[in-house]
């Protein structure tokens, strides 16, 4: 199993079926490479879209700083490939444990209704908000 | 902005949603790109969404608007089911 390249550019891949960084196989490798994978515009340090920024901020609120982020603006093949893979027309796209969860609106809803804390727990990630709540209880 | 005035884009997207979701009890489409037709906010309430996960509900809207989405820069979707 070869290591997935986060940059994605210049990947000539296999001869059959197109290959390349936007192929189903390449995307599959990326979404399975880490429990939390985000396809966005720009980077977590510098998001280039309000919706991508919202995803980054929500993850940060929950204390999730260790995740794989892929900048689709750097790779047109990946940009189209990820949309084909999930059959979802927009960026950002959030994957938890290799499964497509949704975009910014869905992640926001999950954050607001407590589902995100639960989903992170299933991945063995303790949301920072749980500790914040504990602090409040003490007062 | 008066209730009856809509941009052409809002009217078109609303029409497509009415056709594809005949059971919808409420549909509201708002151009949030300042009237440029680049970005829309879609609110749709329908029995069709009952018992479905949010991502599946949004997928149904994506499929219904697959043609219109091609010319959009982005969209926001808010789905719900009628109160029983």
TrEMBL record, chain A:
Residues 7-22 have a biased composition (Gly residues). InterPro entries: Glutaredoxin, GRX_PICOT-like, Monothiol_GRX-rel, Thioredoxin-like_sf. Residues 1-24 are annotated as: Disordered. Residues 36-101 form the Glutaredoxin domain. The keyword Metal-binding applies. GO terms for cellular component: mitochondrial matrix. Keywords: 2Fe-2S, Iron, Iron-sulfur, Metal-binding, Redox-active center. Gene3D superfamilies: Glutaredoxin. Signal peptide: none annotated. One of its GO terms (molecular function) is metal ion binding. Pfam families: Glutaredoxin (PF00462). It comes from the Eukaryota. This is Glutaredoxin-related protein 5, mitochondrial.
TrEMBL record, chain B:
Keywords: Mitochondrion. InterPro entries: BolA (IPR002634), BolA-like_sf (IPR036065), Mt_Fe-S_assembly_factor (IPR052275). GO terms for cellular component: mitochondrial matrix. It holds the Pfam family BolA. SUPFAM superfamilies: BolA-like. The keyword NAD does not apply. It is found in: Mitochondrion. Interacts with NFU1. Belongs to the BolA/IbaG family. Acts as a mitochondrial iron-sulfur (Fe-S) cluster assembly factor that facilitates (Fe-S) cluster insertion into a subset of mitochondrial proteins. Probably acts together with NFU1. This is BolA-like protein 3. It comes from Nyctiprogne leucopyga. The gene is Bola3.
């Amino acid at each position: 199993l070869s290591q997935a390249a986060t940059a994605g550019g210049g990947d000539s891949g296999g001869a059959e079926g197109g290959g390349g960084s936007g192929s189903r196989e390449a995307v599959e490798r990326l979404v399975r490479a880490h429990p939390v994978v985000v396809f966005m515009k720009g980077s977590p340090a510098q998001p280039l879209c309000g919706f991508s920024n919202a995803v980054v901020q929500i993850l940060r609120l929950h204390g999730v700083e260790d995740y794989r982020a892929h900048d689709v603006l750097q790779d047109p093949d990946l940009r189209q490939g990820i949309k084909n893979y999930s059959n979802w027309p927009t960026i950002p796209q959030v994957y938890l444990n290799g499964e497509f969860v949704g975009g910014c609106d869905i992640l926001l809803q999950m954050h607001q209704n407590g589902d995100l804390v639960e989903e992170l727990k299933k991945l063995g990630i303790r949301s920072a908000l749980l500790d914040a709540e504990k602090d409040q209880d003490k007062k | 902005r008066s209730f009856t005035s809509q941009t052409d884009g809002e009217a078109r997207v609303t029409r497509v949603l009415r056709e594809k979701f005949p059971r919808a009890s409420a549909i509201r489409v708002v151009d949030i790109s300042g009237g440029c037709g680049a970005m829309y906010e879609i609110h749709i309430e329908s029995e069709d969404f009952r018992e479905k996960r949010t991502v599946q509900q949004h997928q149904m809207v994506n499929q219904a608007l697959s043609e219109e989405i091609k010319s959009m820069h982005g969209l926001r979707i808010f789905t719900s089911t009628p109160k029983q």
